[in-house]
UniProtKB/TrEMBL annotation:
Entries under SUPFAM superfamilies matching the protein: (Phosphotyrosine protein) phosphatases II
Top EC class, one word: hydrolase
Keyword tRNA-binding (UniProt): no
InterPro entries cross-referenced by the UniProt entry: Prot-tyrosine_phosphatase-like (IPR029021), Tyr/Ser_Pase_IphP-type (IPR026893)
Protein name: Protein-tyrosine phosphatase
Molecular function terms from GO: protein tyrosine phosphatase activity
Keyword Hydrolase appears in the UniProt entry: yes
Protein family per UniProt: Belongs to the protein-tyrosine phosphatase family.
Record keywords: Hydrolase
Length: 280
């Protein structure tokens, strides 16, 4: 399956579903936080409210952000960051009954910062960065399918909700996790792509601040070309297209991928839909 999308279809939300901006939970930090509630499936159901939230890192929060997140009454926080990312910025939750589950996806190796710097020092154009990122997505969906499989199987339990899942920026590893889940739930490719690209809108101020030099990364040397940095901080439709195209190449179809790589049976997919979907 290859996802095809047009500019006209990007805002194609069926009547009755929550708009993408209604799903956003504005908080400052994290900035890329939203609920999956209201996303509509092909058979007329929607993702239930109060179940799942996707986000950029929630490891270190202001007291105000902590209070606002506490209102979600989370039971589980799933962290897709690498072991080094987790070590550098550990969670500091004040609520003791939240189960923090580490499911590392070190797609750039454990030291992602060093890999990013290696790439930035060896490319001459943003197009090269985009191609490199596309390869990361292709690797992520196959090489780390076992991590996504573990996470998806955990969602079969009622004890997994309400849950927030995140990586660092909440767009790549978290974006793929969301795309796989929504595909299993029966959401159309257009709406899967729409949710994926929403990270660009929600991260716009963050991206602008870092590409204009208003805010800098402490670990990144000065003088990095902002044209090279921008693709690293955003998502493009080609990334998700590469993901699903690679699934086709390796497994023949998404259905085969779900069975072979995610180890999801038809019965388990039905249970997943039962846990997360409600009539519109």
């Amino acid at each position: 399956m290859s996802i095809e999308i047009t500019d006209e279809s990007l805002n194609c939300f069926p009547p009755g579903s929550l708009s993408k901006h209604q799903r956003h939970i504005p908080m400052g930090t994290p900035h890329n936080l939203r609920t999956l509630a209201g996303i509509r499936t092909q058979d007329g159901k929607t993702v239930a409210a109060g179940k799942l939230y996707r986000s950029d890192s929630v490891a270190q929060l202001s007291s105000e952000s902590q209070k606002r997140l506490d209102t979600l009454q989370l039971k589980v926080v799933t962290d897709f960051r690498s072991s080094l990312e987790q070590k550098n910025t550990p969670h500091q939750w004040s609520v003791n009954d939240i189960d923090i589950v580490h499911r590392p996806i070190p797609v750039m190796g454990d030291n992602g910062r060093a890999e990013v710097m290696r790439v930035l020092q060896n490319v001459d154009s943003a197009e090269e960065v985009v191609r490199w990122l596309g390869e990361l997505y292709r690797s992520m969906v196959i090489d780390f399918s076992y991590v996504y499989a573990e996470w998806l199987h955990s969602l079969l339990s009622d004890d997994s909700y309400p849950q927030l899942y995140h990586c660092t920026a909440g767009k790549d590893r978290t974006g793929v996790a969301t795309a796989l889940l929504l595909k299993l739930l029966g959401v159309t490719d257009i709406l899967i792509m729409d949710d994926f690209l929403l990270s660009n809108e929600l991260s716009a101020e963050y991206i602008e601040a870092r590409t204009t030099g208003k805010v800098t990364f402490s670990w990144m040397p000065e003088g990095v070309n902002p044209d090279l940095l921008r693709p690293l901080l955003s998502v493009q439709k080609e990334f998700l297209q590469a993901t699903f195209s690679h699934i086709n190449e390796e497994c023949g179809s998404f259905a085969h991928y779900a069975r072979q790589c995610l180890d999801m049976t038809s019965k388990e997919i039905s249970q997943l839909r039962k846990n997360l979907l409600v009539p519109e």
